[in-house]
From TrEMBL:
<dbReference type="InterPro" id="IPR044203">
    <property type="entry name" value="GlbO/GLB3-like"/>
</dbReference>
<keyword id="KW-0479">Metal-binding</keyword>
<comment type="similarity">
    <text>Belongs to the truncated hemoglobin family. Group II subfamily.</text>
</comment>
<protein>
    <submittedName>
        <fullName>Group 2 truncated hemoglobin YjbI</fullName>
    </submittedName>
</protein>
<dbReference type="InterPro" id="IPR012292">
    <property type="entry name" value="Globin/Proto"/>
</dbReference>
<keyword id="KW-0349">Heme</keyword>
<dbReference type="Pfam" id="PF01152">
    <property type="entry name" value="Bac_globin"/>
</dbReference>
<keyword id="KW-0813">Transport</keyword>
<keyword id="KW-0408">Iron</keyword>
<dbReference type="InterPro" id="IPR001486">
    <property type="entry name" value="Hemoglobin_trunc"/>
</dbReference>
<dbReference type="InterPro" id="IPR009050">
    <property type="entry name" value="Globin-like_sf"/>
</dbReference>
């Protein structure tokens, strides 16, 4: 997969199936990350489904998250979790590794990570 300015990021990542694979790999990485694993429930199914819906919408696909849950308001939805800069870094590292493991070429991977940095650090709510 490589950058193609004629396609949405969602399309470049392989649409629903490609994004699903990235998300499954990502949460496999998250459960092994000591800074992140304690923040997540044992049953990752619902978390993965919401992530699929959000990232689909965030990367230019159908507005699945908004249709199911209303406005994303992601900072408010994450306020109950102690999100630190270190946890944001770890989250981005897990996503970066997932993109690499799924064969996303460097240019697209770097663009995706750059796009996710804003939200990741916007969720920081704990020193």
């Amino acid at each position: 997969m490589s950058m193609d300015s004629g396609l949405t990021i969602y399309q470049q990542l392989g649409e629903s199936d490609g994004l699903r694979s990235i998300i499954e790999t990502f949460y496999g990485n998250v459960v092994r990350e000591p800074l992140l694993a304690p923040l997540f429930p044992e049953d990752m199914g619902p978390v993965m489904e919401k992530q699929q819906q959000f990232l689909t919408q965030f990367f230019g696909g159908p507005p699945l998250f908004s249709e199911q849950h209303g406005h994303p308001m992601m900072r408010a939805r994450h306020m109950r979790f102690p999100v630190t800069n270190e946890r944001a870094d770890a989250w981005l590292a897990c996503m970066n590794a997932s993109l690499q493991e799924n064969g996303v070429e460097d240019e697209l991977r770097e663009f995706v990570i750059a796009r996710l940095k804003g939200p990741a650090y916007h969720f920081v709510n704990t020193p």
